[in-house]
Amino acid sequence: MLSIIIPTINEAKKLPLLLADINLYPHQFELIISDYKSSDLTKMIASIGGAKVIHNESKGRGHQLFKGAKEASGEWLLFLHADSRLETYWGWKVAEIINKESNNVYGWFFDFKIEKKGFTWFLLELAVFIRSYFFQAPYGDQGLLISKDLYLRIGGYKQIPIMEDIDINIRLNQATNLKRIGSAITTSSRKYFKSNIIKNAIKNSNLINSWKKGEDPISLMQKYYSNK
């Protein structure tokens, strides 16, 4: 069985669309919403959608993903962001991967698409493709499909407030390869509205380098959310 794990904080507007996409999965699955103190209708929507809702007292996707995975009963885990949209045939691609036993030694990611169209957004998608495919560095908004055995073997998500996707990808690359699922995930452009794309990319690169050099995650989180 596939366990789908989604961290949320006030995602009532976006979550119903993703739940509709998830329900296209052709086989049995388990849905886990790992929520941090949502004050909107997120938890109600999740419950109506058949999800198991987990409550978190610690802020940060690392905490939420760790706790969600701990509660998962599936042999495969799929981690998604709540503001994502999946293609119609995504489930068949994932099922094909899961049903082949030799695939459980790899980590798998979706291709990146942005909901906006235009040359600037195309360049962003191209840059992400190059980073993900050639440098084996997809980010969390591209999802992560991984067998539970491999997830546990590499130590899973760490309970850190930021850089949880970079952290787990480094450990995945040390143990195995990351491969494309063969389907795209469309992410919301909302986080790009208040910042210049190039400046934001430079800022993220600097934060990642600081994290790799051992800077405190709390300090990095404060820098990440400053002037966004």
List the defining traits of the structure above.
three-stranded mixed beta sheet; 9 helices; 228 residues; five-stranded mixed beta sheet; 2 domains; Spore Coat Polysaccharide Biosynthesis Protein SpsA, Chain A; globular; alpha/beta
Mean of pLDDT = 91
The N- and C-terminal alpha carbons lie at a distance of 39 Å
SSE run: EHEHEHEEHEHEHHEHH
Structural class: alpha/beta
CATH architecture of the largest domain: Alpha-Beta Complex
Relative helix content: 40-55%
How many E strands?
Answer: 8
How is this structure best described in words?
The protein has helices at residues 15-22, 42-48, 61-71, 90-98, 119-134, 148-153, 164-175, 197-212, 217-225; strands at residues 2-8, 29-35, 52-55, 76-79, 84-86, 107-114, 144-147, 178-187. The chain has 228 residues and is of the alpha/beta class. The protein has two domains: 2-192, Spore Coat Polysaccharide Biosynthesis Protein SpsA, Chain A; 194-228. A five-stranded mixed β-sheet has the order 3-2-1-4-7, sandwiched between helices. α8 runs antiparallel to α9 (217-225). The longest helix is centred in the middle third of the chain and has 16 residues, at 119-134. 36% of the residues are buried.
